[in-house]
Amino acid sequence: MPAIPATTEIHRCGRFEVRAAERQLLIDQQPAKLGARAFDVLLALVERRERLVSKDELLDLVWPDVVVEENNLQVQISTLRKLLGPQAIATVPGRGYRFSVPVDGAQGSAPPAPLAAPSYAGAVATPPVLESIGAAPALATTGNLPRLLPLLYGRKDDLSALQALLQEQRLVTLVGAGGIGKSRLALAAAHAERERWADGVWLIELASLSDPALVSGAVAQTLGVALPGRQGADYELANALQSKSMLLVLDNCEHLLQAAGELTMTLLARTAGVKLLATSQEPLHATDEQQFRVQPLAVPTDSHAANTRDFGALALFEGRARTADPRFQLNERNLPAVIEICRRLDGLPLAIELAAARVPLLGAEGVRDRLDDRFRVLTAGARFGLRRHQTLRATIEWSYSLLGADEQAVLRRLGVFTGSFGLVSAQAVAAFDRVDEWAVLDHLGALVDKSLVVAEAGEEPRYRLLETGRAWSIEKLAEAGEMETALQRHARAVLAVFERSNAERWTVLEHVRLERYLPDLDNARAALDWAAANAAESDLQIALAGAAAWIWNSVAQRPEGMRRSEQALARVTAATPPALEARLLAAWSQMAYPRFGAAERAAGERAVELYRTLGDQKALYVHLFQHGTYLARSGEFAQAERGFAEAAALHDETWPSLMQQPAIYGRANLCWMQGRHEEVLALSEEHLRLAAALGDSRLVLRSLIHLEQAASSLGRLEEAVARGRDLLARIKHERFVGSIAIVATGNLSSALTELGQLDEALQLARAAFPLAAQADLLLSNLDPFALLAFKRGRIANAARVLGRTEAQYAIVSNRREPNEQRMRDSLFAALREALPAAELECLFKEGAALSNEEAGRLALED
């Protein structure tokens, strides 16, 4: 059954003809190749052409009762625009879509009135990037571009040329000196392009990365793509983006040239709809790279030039000076000095901004005079470097020299931070010798005012240095002989941040905690790297690896989290503080699940032993339930029950309510694996009440999954289907994607399969398949997929898929869940009746050689 009800109407739209009955699109009277979903989207828009159609309405029409990512809709819109032209479907940011091609009429109905250009309250046409003070462009519909862009001065022609290149090329690299304005020009071009890309425009900041191996992970983290870690990261990322239509902006690639170049070539080779815009001081040297050399801003050749404000360098200087002092304006008296400053700074935007920031203190003439002196000092050593680099270096040196000694000390010490940092961390790192914590607070405010430190707005303000300024600070830190002290203080400050994150584990909901501590992830990486390279810092590495372990799964970076935890575990000795060893072992065993072999079991048991010895009742309570859950999943019920009983005896009613969650979850898993499904129902209801009281939407969804599974296990399939549909409706309403959505979709498909409602079951299974594959959750879905294939008459394929699951469950430690086991047993019995034993054995062997993804595709093919 098509998602959109079939009609007999024929809609004629110029060169296009939409035939509803035949479900066909004709272009110039020739049938166009168009998938079923894309046709449903087109028909829905054409039939509702007199109004805006919201995204939610389209999702409900085209994917009824199925949870899909919004990206699926964007892919279909992109497909239609390629066939019909980019203007055929108008996007109203944040609201929906409207069919914009005039329709001549439909068979059996009067032609609609001619459509005027869409006009909506509060919506504005995409504005050009502004050249002077004015309104900022609206927030992009999809992607992560900033809501407000810095004003772009003197780049109107550059922007037009860059946009033209982006129309023709798939990889464009903005190349130029540091501080020349590559990033701002790239952002302006990307913002202007944001409506062209169905899956959005995404900015990936690479400046804070020091390890080339993390480039693909940084892109994946920004896009919310999970990398399973079974193949090369570049390859896995490209596979995840194969069907996407998006523009990626890779900012600050110069220190990661090889890794960035290899990633871009892989994306270009393995995707069709991904375009890349990079910024770098050097080309990426990638195949099919189009370089765009960013030149300095224009400067007048003399002070008597007409229309001086038309020169980008002067416009930028005036704009930044007015930010520092609203009374400033270019006039005949200061114009010669400003022109000389801009000329001497070679029109480099960053240098001009730093100079303009000093106008309130020194005046334009004072800035010019000091700049002259400083250049004369630095020119003596400039012959070994590019002149523009030395000019920027001179500007930074000059700005640094204007600071007091304590301000200089604070600035250079802040250079050890990677990315942004909080105030408490800044005080912990920069306060030593004669500078105390309160002085750091004052000096940090002064550095923000002087544009040497950037303040980022938020619930708790964060700060960062521009990368050029950070490199300068690091150099000065080494000259001052403070490098090792500052790096050690940085590592300890980062540890303090993540110790706070652990202290909040049972008092702050996970999504709030993630938002709070994710900005320090790059600092954690840097601190772990430093500790790993220092023989005397094993305890610090072990402590930080354990404290930060929770965040890796939350940001879909499990392979990196496993690697860093294992590096720290390798440094554990008899002298390691027991509390640090226990926390790291517990975190690692949890991160490794569903793998639960001898090493993971030993780690869990060692953590239990250590927590008992330490007398840490809270930690022992939580870990006993965690470890017991894994034992239950492995069929070791008696040992799991002993651990749960020990944990229950430790519970204190004064503990935070959230600490009830591991107990309920653990007991529900034990009952579930033992087939005590009535108890699972009761425990799931208790879990649901707790989640609702806490206001934790993720825990609510997990509770509803358990209720649905229990009903299915009890044979109450109609109830399971009703619960499953309600659950998917909630997930769809919240636009939640992740393991919960995958499991819920698969569960509903399984219940429908058992009820014989195969069309809907197949539709849901096909929706779940790609998501489960990406999340490495396919194995638990293959038994239901195989049963579905058998009931659809694909008997040989069903046998092959079951052969794959039989082989896999023979080597992994976890067991089938009860519902999966029941479906497996039913299928196995049916296959033995349908096929001779020798043929069944042969098909099992064929299936065992498949991958999980190959088996899934085989089960669901037409």
Describe this structure in words.
The chain has 37 helices and 16 strands. By secondary structure, the chain is of the alpha/beta class. The strands form four sheets. Strands 4-3-2-1-8 form a five-stranded antiparallel sheet, covered by helices on one side. Strands 10-11-12-9-13 form a five-stranded parallel sheet, with helices on both faces. A three-stranded antiparallel sheet has the order 5-7-6. Strand 11 (246-251), helix 8 (257-270) and strand 12 form a beta-alpha-beta unit. Helix 11 packs parallel to helix 13 (387-401) and helix 33 packs antiparallel against helix 34 (795-809). The protein is globular, with a radius of gyration of 31 Å. It starts with 9 loop residues before the first strand and ends with a helix. 45% of the residues are buried.
Count the E strands. 16
Shape: globular
Largest sheet features: 5 strands, antiparallel
Structural class: alpha/beta
Spans of at least 5 consecutive residues with low confidence: 1-6, 106-141, 374-391
Q: Kindly provide the radius of gyration, computed on alpha-carbon positions and rounded to a whole number of angstroms.
A: 31 Å
Mean pLDDT: 83
Helical segment tally? 37
Spatial sequence of strands, sheet with the most strands: 4-3-2-1-8
Helix content: 55-70%
Walk me through the topology.
Layout: E1 10-13, E2 16-19, E3 24-27, E4 30-31, H1 36-47, E5 53-54, H2 55-62, H3 70-84, E6 89-92, E7 96-99, E8 105-106, H4 156-168, E9 171-175, H5 182-193, E10 201-205, H6 215-223, H7 233-240, E11 246-251, H8 257-270, E12 274-280, E13 290-293, H9 312-324, H10 335-344, H11 349-356, H12 359-379, H13 387-401, H14 405-414, E14 421-422, H15 423-430, H16 437-449, E15 454-456, E16 462-464, H17 467-479, H18 483-503, H19 510-517, H20 521-532, H21 538-554, H22 558-569, H23 578-592, H24 598-614, H25 617-633, H26 637-650, H27 660-674, H28 677-694, H29 697-713, H30 717-734, H31 739-755, H32 758-774, H33 779-791, H34 795-809, H35 818-834, H36 837-848, H37 852-860
Parallel strand pairs: 9-12, 9-13, 10-11, 11-12
Antiparallel strand pairs: 1-2, 1-8, 2-3, 3-4, 5-7, 6-7, 14-16, 15-16
Helix pairs in contact: 1-3, 4-5, 7-8, 9-11, 10-12, 11-13, 12-13, 14-16, 14-17, 15-16, 15-18, 18-20, 18-21, 20-21, 21-22, 21-23, 22-23, 23-24, 23-25, 24-25, 25-26, 25-27, 26-27, 27-28, 28-29, 29-30, 29-31, 30-31, 31-32, 31-33, 32-33, 32-37, 33-34, 33-35, 33-37, 34-35, 34-36, 34-37
